[in-house]
Amino acid sequence: MTEAGPALPAPVAATRSLKSRVVRAVLSLLVVGGIVMALAAFAYGRVAARASYDRLLLGAANEIAGAITISGGVPLVDLPTAAFQLLALAPDDRITYSVRSPGGQVITGQDTPLPETIRQAGGGFFDAEFTGLAAAERARFVTVPRRFAERDFSGTILVTVGQTLRARNAMALGLTRDALIVLGFAGVLLIVLGALVVESAMRPLVGLARDLAARDPYDLTPIDTPVPAEVAGMIGALNDFMRRLERQIASMRNLISDSAHQLRTPVAALRVQAELAAEETDPEIARATMVRIVRRSRSLGDLLDQMLSRALVIHRTAEARRVAVDLRDVALAVIETQDHALIAPGRDVALEIGAAPVMVLADDLSLTEAAKNLLANALRHGAGAVRMGAEIEDGAAVLWVRDAGPGPDAATLARIGARFERNAASRGRSAGLGLSIARAVAEAFGGRLELAPGPAGFRAALILPLSEETP
């Protein structure tokens, strides 16, 4: 049979890494920003290209208009080469022009479009279809006037020059492409920087994980590794969790220690008495031995009940939610269970509660277990009638059990409540375990256990902070 290897660590439900999240976020921003920047760059490029090429177009039209002369009452046009040299800066575009007389007839050039609004305004820029091409193509036109007032000729001659939009669109696309290239380089730089920043920020957490992995399994001391302020809250919560876990483990160790200590002697005695009874030939002696075995087994059963009660209290006081509890209800529930009739048949047990609620914030089951142990202690170790009650005393909530006996002497009273303290009159039963349970419950809810002899008898009481809440 092979020996089992070390247990593998439980899988952790991990989400995407912070680095991938940052990269995704930056990519998303770049995509959105790229779309916005591309649209903005294209719009700006179109405006810039239109302004630049409109100036060239206007310059060419003015050159042609300036070359018009009147000879014998007839306008003549000597086309200047400078006009077409300006437009030749956009070699892929098509160019058209026209010179119109005051009556609208074309003196020279092509029959270019001329909207009525431009004619009436005496000139201006406009967009129209470029005629004379195999496929329709949009073009930009400008019309400028040249006015004459001579004896043989008077009127306004309109010069229209048009150019297709290929160079303009190419310029707008070029500006957009350049902007996207810059954005791409900036995006790559941002992604790299973001990944480096996340890696640098995660380095303390990696060191923390390494320190925790190297810890002894039983080392629950607080984590003191330096971490960023954003993680300090998580580390504080983890330290608080480890403190609570350490308390729980300590309580469980105490419980195991208690169990071993408390059970060793009675179990050994029970075994010895059973062996003696099995070997005894005298019926009377065997019967007496069996009576002792029964008594011992009952005592052992009571001890086991107390130990289970202690285990329950350890768990409940650490895990149970605090709710509003009326101590009168706790006392009433303990009396109604009739456990006292089994512990001490025939003993007089009375309940004393008033009309006013006695409210505390606690766990009702833990309080019930503590009250049961106080009552059982009084029945086993006290004398006379036993009374149980709940009241408000000096601004605190009190759940008490009183018997008619004088109680233990001062020396014993100082030791009572230790887990293994035994009363000499208790026939071997532990008085300390029951009271330690009651003390643990009281302290868990911010109170204390008070043991006080008095003229009316010995009183054991849970003193708890009073609460104004109602159930």
UniProtKB/TrEMBL annotation:
Residues 199-250 form the HAMP domain. It holds the Pfam family HisKA. GO terms for molecular function: phosphorelay sensor kinase activity. This is histidine kinase. It is an enzyme of class 2 (transferase). InterPro entries: 2CSK_N, HAMP_dom, HATPase_C_sf, HATPase_dom, His_kinase_dom, HisK_dim/P_dom, HisK_dim/P_sf, TCS_sensor_his_kinase. One of its GO terms (cellular component) is plasma membrane. Its EC number is 2.7.13.3.
